[in-house]
Task: inverse folding
């Protein structure tokens, strides 16, 4: 197995010369900004996150601003990023920072990890970037670097493999110089995984660890990290209805838990019968030609076949308890799930406008 000795120093030297230094969250490394970027970067690529991060900060520049907002205020600025539990935990975390910590993030990873939505690696990243704490991280990029460098076989999400990787990460920091630049080391590991030690076609010749990397020496960069056995994704089906009346569209808000939690979406049903019962309750009859082309949306753990229906009504339909009539001009700023956003943008294309009041 490759050695942990001098690993951190080599990563730091490489990062300072070749790593990324101009990402938005690197310019002002406050705990709030680092925390926000780390949560957004979970399961999401940097190029996607940048615009969301900047828009989010413009609307919620401080943790106090985020804590004082409602969840309905927050969700439109997350819509499209996916994994919506992150946004709900983000909001809860901001409120807890204000109520339990006087508006200041705790300065150590152990305390940070007690906050909603902050796991061990995220807590260590905040602590190392903002407070210089010598705590290792272990995100997806680092797992890829470490499994290849140390020659760790077995899927990284397996408990025993993950514990082994954490032990190596801790040993690497412990054996590093006392004056190690933790921010540069932490960023360097992220940059290595993102820029050089990529999933396919890694650029080994430019890597500062190539001289004693197990995977490179044994021509196993394609085999490591060990892939997770592919399971057959279950498939589900639903029906959604676009009801347009007097320049408005009917939306419903999903419960806080589950898929699309807290977002606004079209009324959704498991069967055509349920859809027709709902339409009749509004005094609407679905014409035979109201069914549109089906859509497929792939989640991480299942595929969803969405069957949209479209109906226009010239009658004034009263608002129901669980639904809301949204003006067409407010749709671009509504917190819609990605497939519903795509559907609505196709039906109601419009140039980007100033943020409109949804309710």
Result:
């Amino acid at each position: 197995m490759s050695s942990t000795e001098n690993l951190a120093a080599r990563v730091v030297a490489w990062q300072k010369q070749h790593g990324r230094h101009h990402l938005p969250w690197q310019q002002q490394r406050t705990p709030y900004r680092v925390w926000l970027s780390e949560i957004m970067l979970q399961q999401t690529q940097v190029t996607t996150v940048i615009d969301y991060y900047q828009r989010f900060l413009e609307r919620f520049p401080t943790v106090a601003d985020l804590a004082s907002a409602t969840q309905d205020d927050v969700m439109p600025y997350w819509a499209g990023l996916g994994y919506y539990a992150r946004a709900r935990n983000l909001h809860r975390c901001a409120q807890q920072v204000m109520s339990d910590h006087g508006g200041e993030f705790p300065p150590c990873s152990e305390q940070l990890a007690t906050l909603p939505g902050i796991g061990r690696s995220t807590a260590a990243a905040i602590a190392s970037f903002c407070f210089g704490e010598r705590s290792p991280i272990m995100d997806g990029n680092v797992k890829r670097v470490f499994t290849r460098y140390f020659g760790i076989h077995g899927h990284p999400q397996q408990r025993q493999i993950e514990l082994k990787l954490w032990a190596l990460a801790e040993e690497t920091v412990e054996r590093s110089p006392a004056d190690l630049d933790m921010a540069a080391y932490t960023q360097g590991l992220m940059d290595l995984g993102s820029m050089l030690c990529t999933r396919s076609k890694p650029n080994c010749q430019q890597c500062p660890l190539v001289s004693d990397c197990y995977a490179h020496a044994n021509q196993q960069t394609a085999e490591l990290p060990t892939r997770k056995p592919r399971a057959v994704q279950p498939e589900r089906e639903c029906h959604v209805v676009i009801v347009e009346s007097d320049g408005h569209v009917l939306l419903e808000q999903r419960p806080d838990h589950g898929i699309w939690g807290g977002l606004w979406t079209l009324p959704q049903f498991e069967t055509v019968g349920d859809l027709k019962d709902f339409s009749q309750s509004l005094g609407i009859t679905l014409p035979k030609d109201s069914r549109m082309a089906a859509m497929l949306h792939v989640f991480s753990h299942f595929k969803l076949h969405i069957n949209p229906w479209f109906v226009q009504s010239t009658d004034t339909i009263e608002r129901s308890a669980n639904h809301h009539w949204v003006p067409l001009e407010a749709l671009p700023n509504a917190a819609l799930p990605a497939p519903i956003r795509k559907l609505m943008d196709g039906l109601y294309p419009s140039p980007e406008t100033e943020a409109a009041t949804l309710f």
User: Anything to note?
Assistant: Residues 353-359 have pLDDT under 50 and may be disordered. Residues 7-217 form a domain with the Endonuclease III; domain 1 fold (CATH 1.10.340.30).
